[in-house]
Design brief:
By secondary structure, the protein is of the alpha/beta class. The protein has 10 helices and 8 strands. It has a single domain, classed as Rossmann fold (3-Layer(aba) Sandwich). Helix 6 packs antiparallel against helix 10. The model has no long low-confidence stretch (mean pLDDT 95). The structure holds S-adenosylmethionine. The site of S-adenosylmethionine has 20 residues, from helix 2.
């Protein structure tokens, strides 16, 4: 289950990669734009602002997210999605890491989309970070170590399209609020730790969190009230 309120923490840091991604889309008058794994919908709405003439649709498999997003958004699984004939832009931001087999899906979309369409995707590439490594070590639930490709891997999958692929490591400087949990723990709780939370009862979840917290505090120390959290992300914009 996705909790829009927990995911909404660090909204400014999370929206930056989306904005950097869509800035590289060159479509001028797309007929339809689809945002796959749209989450609570606020970023999808910026696409409607950029292309007011387009039919903009957001699709997400989480009922909680779709309820938060409101009218015009629909429940659906990315794995089942096929582009309608007028889709000229597909955006998928921070979602494909949850979809096994997504590289084959990207190749299929590239074949199914009309000529001149744009696919823009971003996935986190920080599964080897100290926070994720500690979570994998301590979690009683198996967490996938490597659910994404690197930029070159996606470029290969999308061979035959024109590919613009890159990687960026953002340095998020997160406030360490006195009395609150460590900000990196609060961050990953909203995303990577969701499968752990879903599998454990309250007591085991509290024990897992209590074991993870000192590992995270050690890896990401506070300096002058801030915690530096480097976050690598992988971007691909392809034109069919
Ligand atoms: C980290 S959030 C990203 C939300 C939004 N794209 C953003 O940039 O803020 C990941 C989203 O992907 C959705 N998701 C995960 N697996 C999915 C799937 N197989 N089909 C559709 N949505 C999925 C989740 O429900 C969640 O809303």
């Amino acid at each position: 289950m996705w909790d829009p309120a927990v995911y909404g923490r660090f909204g400014a840091e999370r929206s930056r990669p989306f904005l950097d991604l869509v800035a590289r889309i060159g479509a001028e008058h797309p007929r339809a734009v689809t945002d796959l794994g749209c989450g609570p919908g606020d970023l999808t709405r910026t696409l409607a602002g950029r292309w007011p003439g387009a039919r903009v649709t957001g699709i997400d498999s989480s009922p909680e997210m779709i309820e938060k997003a409101g009218p015009g958004f629909r429940l659906g699984d990315i794995a089942d999605w096929h582009p309608e004939p007028d889709v000229d832009v597909v955006v998928t931001n921070a979602a494909l890491q949850w979809v096994p087999g997504h590289p084959e899906m990207l190749a299929r979309w590239a074949r199914e989309l009309p000529s001149g369409a744009w696919i823009a995707m971003q996935v986190p590439g920080n599964f080897d970070s100290p926070a994720h490594r500690a979570a994998r070590e301590l979690s009683p639930v198996e967490l996938r170590a490597d659910p994404v490709l690197d930029a070159a891997g996606y470029a290969e999958v999308l061979a035959g399209t024109t590919v613009d692929a890159w990687e960026t490591t953002y340095l998020h400087l997160l406030p360490a609020d006195p009395g609150a949990d460590h900000p990196v723990l609060r961050w990953i709780e909203g995303t990577a730790l969701r499968p752990v939370r879903a599998a454990l009862d309250d007591e085991r979840w509290a024990a897992f969190r209590a074991a993870l917290a000192p590992r995270i505090a050690e890896a990401y120390p506070e300096r002058h009230g801030l915690v530096a959290f480097p976050f690598r992300r992988i971007f691909v914009v392809a034109t069919t």
